[in-house]
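B., you asked whether I could sanity-check this one before it goes into the benchmark set. Here's the sequence:
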Amino acid sequence: MKEQYINPVLVNIKFYKSGKKMNDETYFALLERARSKIPKKVFEHSRFKIPPLRIFTEGNKTSILNFKEIADVLNRDPNHIMKFFLRELATRGNFEGTRATFIGRFGQLTLKSLMKRYTNKYVLCPFCNKPETRIIKEDKFLYLQCLSCGAKESIKAI
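And here's what the prediction gave me:
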């Protein structure tokens, strides 16, 4: 037998129109049934932490030594992150092995704030703030799809 969906708001309106009030047992039963349909990941609370940037400056070049490690934690392609950094810093650079090198002297605060902006724009879900997301392309548009809550938000291409 196929289970039917009962909208609690409509049920409450029906009770209200009939002059009856919904009792606590009915309400909590509907609430528990609605909660059982939501994925368990939504209720889990874990702290998402990006590893600290290990920066090395040599002359007019600034390198992030653990760039690949950070890209792995964020579950993003290092070239995507690199493209964002290069555009925001308005400079040239390259990604080799585990490090990213930028032409110019950039401080810890500048690079850290850029990483935070990238994470907020392209990693964290705008609805549940969880990092379990992926970037998908449909036609000409990019979307950030959350694997925890199922939300899908359009994002700007870099």
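One thing to flag: The chain has a mean pLDDT of 84. Otherwise nothing jumped out at me.
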